[in-house]
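so i finally got all the pieces together for this one. its two components total, 463 residues if u count the protein bits. some of the lines might not be protein, just check the labels. i wanna see the whole assembly predicted at once instead of chain by chain like last time, that was a mess tbh
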Amino acid sequence: MNKNSNTYQILYAAVMVLLVGSLLALIYMALKPKQNENIANDTRKQILSALHIAAPDDSQVKETYEKYIIQDLLVDPEGNVVDSAQNVAFNVDMKKNVKLDERQLPVMKCKMDDGSIKYVLPMYGAGLWGPIWGYVAVNDDGNTIYGANFSHEGETPGLGARIADKDFQDLFVDKHLFLNGEYKGVVVLKKGQKSVTGAEQIDALTGATITSLGVSAMLEDCLAPYKSFLMKLQGNSGAQPAADAAETEINDNQPE
Amino acid sequence: MLSKKNKEALFNPLSKDNPVLVQILGICSALAVTASLEPAIVMGISVICVLAFSNVIISLLRKTIPTNIRIIVQLVVVAALVIIVQQILIAYNYDVSKQLSVFIGLIITNCILMGRLEAFAMHNRPWPSFLDGIGNGLGYTIVLLIVAFFRELLGSGKLFGYQVVPQWCYDHGYENNGLMILAPMALITVGCIIWVHRAHNKELQED
């Protein structure tokens, strides 16, 4: 057969694509379960990292996660728990959980070694080149950030990618989400800029303005729906946050 | 098995005909994945596998491939092999696959592959093609490893992730050279290796 005839070339290409396509599909199906497990473990690592916990080694990520995360919750915008089945929060696909009016609000409740309770809130947003996501751990006073972890799909190495560095994430520790009992959140701003709402601020990354703004927008977008839930926590944990609020009140009396 | 010609196909690319040092192919990925040794090794092994097998497949098909669409056929074969490597890495070495991220996918565009397929596999039998693939892959890997060795040692004071520069050096004011981690120093390191290599191989020197 003439190798350069159109029929031969078209047939050749068609058969080749069919063969290669089915081969790849087979391999994909065969490796999928193993891959999903790896991705889930990576997510667990990120959640644990927001709690400043590292698994002793990679094979024990799941055990470590299950040891510290004692309960998964779904809450509604009024702050009521609507579901607390096993892994219900972990299994929420944040990618598909964007629309505000039908958003599920997952919370992972965690018990630390010293017995204190932390709540991990997942978040999802947009950076410069692609999605960014993260986990913010809040103390049981519903106000103080205990730790944060951010990841990204394809931010610029050395610039936006630094949101995944510990140095940046540690800036969030001990920031407060409420001021005088009113929800403010936290914002990421350039050095020298001042938040208009009075929210506590974190210095943006130099050379990564869009990614920093993305983190800020993600925090605003994903933390605000938990407002009522966090307020309830403040009510539950008794005297301490009240004292906190009183203290900030005194500090903030002068401006008016 | 290893006639003189086959030996040449296997061993020449290691030094005299090295794809990176002499043909200056595959430089882009050589800069990107050499900040530490582990991703460099994985990248090297991936390139060896993809190169060897795509060489064999193309060599087996060489008599059936229509000349007009031969580049497309080569690309499909390479792309399929690269995707397989990528999927296997995600399944069995997730951390490294995250580190290498886009670079595994970019093996498809690595000039070494297309170069070997066009120049060698299209005109030779499977066995020499296989050896040629292994040889060129190894030549590429060796350069990656040398670059990664210096970058990891001077940039992070580690080798394979283990601390090798002792703490007392840091206590006496030694600092890791952050510049080594960045791409420019990879290029300079490759340049130095080419310099040393040419100094040893007089016949490669140009006027």
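Residues 238-256 of chain A have pLDDT under 50 and may be disordered.
The helical segments of chain A are 6-50, 61-68, 166-169, 209-223, 227-236, 239-251.
anyway lmk what u think
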